[in-house]
From TrEMBL:
Keywords, comma-separated and alphabetical: Exonuclease, Hydrolase, Nuclease
Protein name per UniProt: 3'-5' exonuclease
GO molecular function: exonuclease activity
SMART domains reported for this sequence: EXOIII
Keyword Hydrolase: yes
UniProt cross-references to Pfam families, sorted A to Z: RNase_T
Naturally occurring in which organism (per UniProt): Thalassobellus suaedae
Stretches assigned to the Exonuclease domain: 33-205
Domain of life of the organism encoding this protein: Bacteria
InterPro entries per record: DnaQ (IPR006054), Ribonucl_H (IPR013520), RNaseH-like_sf (IPR012337), RNaseH_sf (IPR036397)
Protein's UniProt keywords contain Aminoacyl-tRNA synthetase: no
Length: 217
């Protein structure tokens, strides 16, 4: 006889997040809410490293809701001095920091069931999912758009180059997007939003502005 497996008791904030997906989002791209986000971390190992900060901006159509951005700094249980020169976040400082669990709650409340946008999105998604896993929660349910992949798709086939990394700096240069506050989570989130909107404009001109194209189907 197979023993009965007790279902985990999830906290209310996780259940509220899951309930968001019972509501359908707008099918009109111009009316949909997008969330561009970025994480600064202690390194690139999703198991061993930790998220130091999360930045996010939301927008509908071409209007970025600057006054409704998200900026979180997390308590540093793991500290790697060699990465400070990249993100500039010290273990101790004047910035107000929250626990990892509090950061998760705030982030989920902010993103709801909206479409998430990130550059090299799999990394940021994996880092957030590891945070969720450490607290006994499931993975992010949101749809994702990777600006690196989308930019390459927006090029004419003869101009695509698989040897190029299509970094965020490269895209900013090609699309004439200022790199203000580069390597801060909120700064990179805002830059990613501008990059995404520039790519959307290109896709619109080529009649490729549809969900199937955006979501890599």
């Amino acid at each position: 006889m197979v023993p009965f497996k007790k279902q985990p008791e999830y906290p209310d904030f996780w259940l509220e997040y899951l309930n968001c997906f019972k509501n359908k989002n707008s099918t009109d791209i111009d009316m949909s809410r997008f969330i561009a986000f970025d994480t600064e971390t202690t390194g690139f190992d999703r198991k061993e490293d930790r998220v130091l900060s999360i930045g996010a901006v939301s927008f509908v159509g071409k209007t970025i809701e600057v006054n409704n951005s998200l900026e979180l700094y997390l308590e540093q249980d793991i500290f790697k001095a060699e990465t400070v020169k990249i993100h500039g976040l010290m273990k101790n400082g004047s910035l107000e920091k929250v626990s990892e669990l509090e950061a998760i709650k705030t982030f989920l409340e902010y993103i709801k069931n909206d479409v998430l946008i990130a550059h090299h999105a799999s990394f940021d998604r994996n880092m957030i999912n590891e945070m969720l896993s450490r607290h006994g929660l499931g993975k992010l349910k949101n749809k994702f758009i990777d600006t690196g992949i989308l930019y390459k798709k927006s090029l004419h086939i003869i101009y695509q180059d698989n040897t190029k990394p299509y970094t965020l700096d490269y895209l900013c240069k090609e699309l004439h997007v200022p790199t203000v506050d580069r390597h801060t989570a909120t700064g990179d989130a805002l830059i990613t939003a501008f990059v995404f909107l520039k790519i959307l404009s290109r896709l619109d001109k080529r009649k490729h502005l549809n969900w199937g194209y955006l979501l890599n189907r």
